[in-house]
Amino acid sequence: MKIMLTAQFFLITSIFLITYIAPVCSQSRCLEDQKILLLKLKVEFRFDPLASRKLVIWNENEDEDCCSWDGVECDDAGHVISLELDNESIYAGLENSTSLFSLQYLERLNLAFNNFNNIQIPSRLYNFTNLTHLNLSETGFVGQIPVELSSMRRLVSLDLSNMYTGNQPLKLENPDLKRLVQNLTELRELNLDGVVIATHGRNWSRILSSFLPNLRVLSLRQCYLSGPIDSSLSQLHSLEVLRLDLNNLSTTVPDFFVNFSKLTTLSLGGCSLRGLFPSKIFQVPTLQNLDISYNFLLSGTLPQFSQTRSLRIMVLSSTNFSDSLPDSISNLTMLSRIELNNCKFSGKIPSTITNLTELVYLDLSDNNFTGLIPQYPMLKKLTYIDLSRNRLTGSLSSAHFEALSNLEYINFGHNLLTGNLPSALFVLPSLQKLLLSNNQFDGQIEEIPNPPASQIKELDLRSNNLQGQIPNFLFKFEQLNVLLLSFNFFNGTFQLEKTREIRNLSSLDLSYNNLAIDLNVNSSTFSFFPDIKRLKLASCNLEEFPEPLQHLNLSVLDLSANQLKGKIPTWIWEINNRSLTYLNLSFNQFTSLEKPYSIHSLTILTVLDMSFNQLHGELPIPPPSSAYLDYSNNNFNSSIPADIGTYTSRASYLSLSNNSFTGVIPTSFCMAYYLLVLDLSNNALNGSIPSCLTENSGGYLGVLNIRRNRLSGNIPDSFSIGCRLKTLDLSHNSLTGNFPGSLVNCPLLDVVNIGYNRVEGTFPCMFMNTNLRVLVLRSNRFHGELQCPGAIQEWPKLQIIDISVNNFSGDLSPSYFSIWKGMKDSNYDGNEGHRDLRFDFLKLDGFYYRDTVTLTIKGLEMDLEKILIVFTSIDFSRNKLKGKIPDSIGDLKSLYLLNLSSNAFTETIPASIGNLKQLGSLDLTMNRLTGKIPGKLASLTFLSFLNLSFNKLSGSIPLGHQLQTFSADSYEGNVGLCGFPLNISCNSNKMDGVPPLKFENGHFQRKTEIDLDYIFAALGYGTGLGISVLLLLFCPIWRERYFDQVDKVLLKIFQKQRGKNRRVGAGVPRNRIRRL
């Protein structure tokens, strides 16, 4: 028995030695010639030894086996068969290397993520006849891919991706894609991201399916491919990964993708895909990663998901996907990343998402989700959640954040959330960013006596209703970098000294609260202060210029909307060694600049806003680096410097409006080639419009506003091809001559306003079939008919047209208004209806220019400082139009204002006007209309102004709640009209109390007597109006609150108000808003 056990022991030991030890002993060491080649390769390659982790440790030690070196693999005979030298910071030496191309047994070569400094791929690579894997991705190679690569027939994997390195792309032109792959029949993986592939249409699909039938991985991102995707691609039955992002495929997603039974990754982001996405693709059982983002015309809905799906990443952002999220999304138990931002999803966020226990990243922002925010106690791996820019309601509680210890990012901004902020939010252990701006949170933030260590770096509570004092625990957050508390109701005194405890603080915004700011700081302690770069103290009740600020290294400073007065001190231009990039001193009471001032020496100042002050005298020379310059609404009364264009050569926005500038418009403005907005309105400028302003319209100019000046001469007819103008306002001048036909070269125009001049011409039919929204020709010398020739003519966007006080004549065809699509049913929903007409520029910083227009509304001339896109108006008054008012006027369902007065229209009032349920003002006075007032007019419940006077209407005024609310003046001058509110009974011809009428000079006239009661009433009205006007002119806060109320009234008129009205702080100019 003992002998048997001993024998078994030796047998087992022998087997172990044979199995595990023998191979190690028999394995060949690196051959000496291979080692010599590798060491020579190290010398030939030029690389950064501090960044290298492999090459740098290869050495000549005789006892060291080169097969054990990092990045080297050998076969059993000691030949080098694999080199993995990716990320070695190699930048030269490949093109002249002899040692590399002498490694004849090489099967794998990986040089990815080095930088070979814009050289071509060496053609000698074809010497590697045994190569199966070649990876040259992101190595900085440029130019044509050599044809020699096509002879490497044993290649299984080829990666030449070049999306992120190289000043020039790699190209597949000659040879083309076909010549490259026709011999590479063993390929299983092909990555050509960023390579310019020269093929026509769908040929690329056919080539790949013909020559590479066994492909498992195909990645052709940003290869300049075009569509459609040919059905032959369906022959790649083994396909597991398909990436075609950033090509202009401009096609639908083919249904045959569903048949790729092994597909794990489908990435089609930014391909200009359109149509309906096949929902069955979501059901492919092997699919793990799906990205179809940034296909803005691609629509679809999420299906009902069954159990045991493998999907891990779902990215649908910036598509047209809509409808609600299904509760069955909880069946996708492997999901770790969901990106559905900037789509059209609606409904409630399903509470079943809480079952996705693997979820790490959730982004549902920029949709129309409603209801409450679900609680996510099971999502313990969640690090990122963004639900911003929806319509979520309700409050937050501590239960929302229990067990979310890994959460790093929260963004619930731009919703309708209410209630107090729970303390649990501020003590999440991993939280770095907390963004809750633009909600309705209220109450005080509860103080936390001994807050735990916080990782919060950015806290944004702007635009809420938070009250009380700013809690002290915020100043215990040592990692805090950005603190934004503006547009709330915080009160008390804020001491700048508090910020000393937040050593990392770089951005602080306390604007528009009820705070008193204590800036009394001992200058000797400034060295202990954080390095604040961005400081915003707008509307903080400052009465003295805060001199301690000169000791900070500021790059952004906002002191707007305070009570600062006197001179702007010289030291402000010296802050941070003249390194200010943003300075806003608007809405104060500054009168001048302390001399000597050196604005022009600020070489990196990009935003300078000195508007709405009392500055006078000559215009300060602006800094040459400025992109945004606003000197508007001051008392400057000099001429504009002739060389101003020299100093504004980099400017995108320049406003000198609402001053008293005199003289001519300098031609040097034409040197400011990058100008997007030029506003010289409301001054006393004279002379003519420089022709170079229109000749250079092919540059970047989007807004040219020179209204309300004293300009004369012709409008230059030299608008160049490629003109980018969106707003042209030349109104309220003394311009003459013909209307410029060259405006046809400006297809982007939204607003054309040349009202109140002496311009001649016929109706500008050139604007038909364009996106023009506002056309004002009021009070000029236009003539002729309004009909435009052509078979297909329409106004797709026109919402305001005022051609009154001209000499237009002729009849309007019965279908005249049927082509005005911009005034038909408006489907503006939610926040869309709150939008106003504007010109966006410097979009990353949130700058825009707000269009304005002067209209006659209800008999009063009014300046619309904000043109809501739902506001519609037609004013054809005081012309010579005749004939019947077309019944097609009733098609304009969204029309608010209609004025056809003082023409020669005849026949009856169209009953179709009763279809205009949004109509608020109707003026048909001084025409020759006959017949009865249509009964349907009584159903116009929004109608607040009506004038049918001085026509030939007859019969009784229709009974109803609306038409009897107007005074008799609305109906006077119609001899045959009777009924309330007229003092004419329909049963009697007696006209009690109505003075006799007579017809003179084409109009009805009434002999009246002076009534002192009316005179005194008018005097009282005039006094009240004068006081109101003075308040509007000289009190910015009162003015802003007034226009806020006007906005709210208009929104209620045009549609049911949805969402909440955002509170805008006093002192923000109404023609543009800035965010930084």
Tell me what you see in this structure.
This protein is mainly beta and 1076 residues long. Among the domains are: 31-192, Ribonuclease Inhibitor (Leucine-rich repeat, LRR (right-handed beta-alpha superhelix), Alpha-Beta Horseshoe); 637-997, Ribonuclease Inhibitor (Leucine-rich repeat, LRR (right-handed beta-alpha superhelix), Alpha-Beta Horseshoe). The protein is 10% helix and 23% strand. The strands form 13 sheets. It has a 35-stranded mixed sheet, with no helix packed on it. The chain has a six-stranded parallel sheet with strand order 15-17-19-21-23-25, with no helix packed on it. Strands 27-29-31-33-35 form a five-stranded parallel sheet, with no helix packed on it. A hairpin with a 2-residue loop joins strand 60 (853-857) and strand 61 (860-864).
Dominant shape: globular
**Computed Rg:** 37 Å
Helix content: under 10%
Q: Tell me the distance between the termini.
A: 90 Å
CATH architectural category of the domain at 637-997? Alpha-Beta Horseshoe
Report the average pLDDT across residues: 86
Question: Which ranges are low-confidence, i.e. pLDDT below 50, for 5 or more consecutive residues?
Answer: 1-7, 9-27, 989-1034, 1048-1076
- Reading off the top of the CATH hierarchy, the class of the domain at 637-997 is best stated as Alpha Beta
Q: Roughly what fraction of the amino acids lie in strands?
A: 15-25%
Q: How many helical stretches?
A: 9
Protein name: Receptor like protein 6
Family: Belongs to the RLP family.
Signal peptide: 1-26
Transmembrane segments: 1014-1038
